[in-house]
Amino acid sequence: MKKVYINGLGCISCQKTFDSVFLEEAEIEKNQNVLTAKEPVYKDYISPGASRRMAKGVKNGIVASAMAMKDANVSNLDAIITGTGLGCIEDSEKFLKSIIDNKEEFLTPTSFIQSTHNTVGGQIALGLQCKAYNFTYVNGGISFESALLDAKMQLELDESETILVGGIDESADFTTQFFKIAKVIKSDDERNISILDKKTKGHVAGEGASFFVLENKKTENSYAEIASISVVNTLEPNQIENQIKDFLTENSLEINDIDAVILGINGDINFDNYYDDISENLFKNTPQVYYKHLSGDYHTASSFGFYVASKILKLQEIPEIIRMNSVEKRDYKNVLLYNQYLGKDHSFILLKQC
Q1: CB-based contact 208:57 (threshold 8 Å)
Q2: Tens digits of per-residue pLDDT, 242-290?
């Protein structure tokens, strides 16, 4: 089977990731529990007329995909595969509100049409006039990983050569309020949060769009090789260590072979215990990285972690703002990403320097 490489990336997030090298302008928000994406100049990518009719998630997806394709220097795609947890939730809320306000009469279908989960993939394809394979995965906390796994298998088997893969989610007011009531998002009275030190119920929410051009050939611009992906729906905290060991064994690696581990810690006391044991024991002598204090947490937040891992392997550096410990390595050759969402949908991704 052929190897799979990350040859281009584009990221719109709660940090200025669209015109910077690697988090050099990143800032930690200490006053808000719902982070919003920093918006690029949309008119550089989308006509103002079309932009006015698009939700922010769709616009961010289009821009991030365009950035990834420019970075990879490609114009033709064999597939577009996206992952999303809640889709275009902002338009869903608009449509539901119009049903209530208009007493289920005289409804316009625009918001409903634009609220479907595959809107982002469809709009990207329309803009490129791409009639190739186009699929959207809506698999909760492993939506992005599902898209990634689909692309990896197609490229390994030489069914495709160039695939655009992305993870996209947006926040919306009503849904955010419901999440706060359910203690999924931290309450409004919590401020100055350090997700490593002050752990309470709920996480800091975020949004973003991260897209990657994957190919089965290495180029001068290649960021990393995608060595392996594994997803497990349900695990207990005491099973994580053995799961990671088995995953590495399948890839002929040991714990000492991992040069950096990227963890999806989000400050939620209910679920961060999945990371605590491996952080304090299994990977205590390994450089540890976290990222959700910058991106916030959402169903496809792992795509931002994937962006971080890709940059670490290409630039061979870990910015201080995402370091969890002081362990250093001379070279970063193997990077492991582990993420879970609300105690379920555990994902393990192994990236290698290329």
Answers
A1: no
A2: 999 999 999 999 999 999 999 999 999 999 999 999 999 999 999 999 9
Give residues with Cβ within 8 angstroms of 113, minimum separation 6.
none
| Per-residue CA distances from 326 to 183, 214, 215, 284, 289 (Å) | 32, 32, 34, 10, 10
C-alpha span between 288 and 311 (Å, rounded): 15
The CATH 3.40.47.10 domain(s) of the chain lie at: 5-215, 227-352
> Nearest-CA neighbor of 61 among 118, 138, 124?
124
CA distance 53 to 97: 17
Query: How far out from the chain centre does Cα 236 lie?
Result: 23
* Domain 5-215: assigned CATH number: 3.40.47.10
Complete DSSP assignment for 174-241: HHHHHHHHTTSB--TT--S--TTT--BSSB-B--EEEEEEEESS--TT--EEEEEEEEEEE--GGGHH
pLDDT at 7: 98
Residue 192 has φ and ψ, to the nearest 5°, of 50, 50
- pLDDT confidence band for 191 (50 / 70 / 90): low
Domain 227-352 belongs to what architecture? 3-Layer(aba) Sandwich (3.40)
